[in-house]
Amino acid sequence: MFGPDPYHMIYLFSDTPFPPSESVIAFPFEQTWWTVKAYDQYGSTIYADPLQIYAENVRAQIIENLITGQRYASIQQAINDAHPGDEIVVGPGACQYLENINFKGKNLTLRSVDPNDPAVVAATVIDGGHRGSVVSFSGGEEGNCVLDGFTLTGGIVGISSRDAYPTIRNCTIGSAGTIAIQFWHGYEPTIIDCTILGLVKEQDDPRLVADWRLDEKEGIVAHDSAKGNDGTVQGGAAWQPEGGMIDGALQLDGIDDYVSTEFVLNPADGAFSVFAWLKGGAPGQVIISQQAGVNWLMADPSEGKLMTELKSAGRTGTPLLSQAIITDGEWHRIGFVSDGANRALYVDGVVAAQDTQTGLKGSGGGLYIGVGENYAAGTFFSGMIDDVRIYNRAVKP
Ligand SMILES: [Ca+2]
Ligand SMILES: [Ca+2]
Questions:
Q1: Residue-range domains of the chain with CATH
Q2: What is the pLDDT of residues 376-393, one digit of tens each?
Q3: Which ligand number lies closest to the CA of residue 220?
Q4: Distance between Cα 379 and ligand 1 center (Å)
Q5: What is the CA(317)–ligand 2 centre distance, in A?
Q6: Is the CB of residue 237 less than 8 Å from the CB of residue 253?
């Protein structure tokens, strides 16, 4: 109850058996007093002494969906009610927002009042307490899912992103533990102008079925850090422990060097993805191929554009050629992704070619890294290859 003086409490805010869900964000009188009157189940009533409210002591917490105009008592409640594309604005808290937030796959914007003002960011704090992550992206959030202008603290981790690649801007990201951000292989969130107070950790992904990091210093074994499907280095290819894109890499001579592996997966079995870094090479050379199969990733024979021979088993099957030249001597991350019906080639995180081609032709053979499936002379790769990864699902790089 509110009133203009302690003896006239005339404005009733709520008399429900439940706590009021609305916030009082404007005082009803020039000088406002407030008190509490509570009933119990036996009809007894309790009064608290009225207190005067001083405006300078009160900063209302405002959580508002700008699209619907609806205000909320918690950030999570606002997200739960929101639709994709909505914009939720959170005012600087009188104290911290004690919540663990989950975007629940919704592509919406959650921002502070002024994400570009460091003072606002410092005053808009979400504290995850002693459990979980402060903010979770649990799957399906894309680049237009935006977290903008918050300070995250508490929680076991600051941000957890699984099967999502949201945009996180102007945030100070910390946690009560050592990890500020954790994400799962292949789904790295876009971090812009953030202060990260802790580790950024890539977690294991059970659908990563092979990962040859090529960080060895000697020997003929290329270790697979995902499933232990180690490869064998042939032809005397040279380890480059300092020369890779991610730590070390393998230098191939274009004559007889390559890596062979046991069977990893059959392209006919459905969605899968393959990625690798390369530097160098020449038109017609192959980065990855499959024994008794086709060339998965190669430079086209005339200009060195990324292409794949992974194609439908039927008569309509055709190779897929991009316009992206990969043999220009720079490091490039190349990839092929099939979701079972659509195939796409990626160069440096961007789609370079895509089409629809169902039912890829299968093979139960092992893989070659750095030579074509038929050992043809012009298919041996001359350059460096690094971090070859295979997933048994469609990954967006
Ligand atoms: Ca050699
Ligand atoms: Ca490496």
A1: 1-58 (no CATH), 63-203 (2.160.20.10), 208-391 (2.60.120.200)
A2: 999 999 999 999 999 998
A3: 1
A4: 14
A5: 34
A6: yes
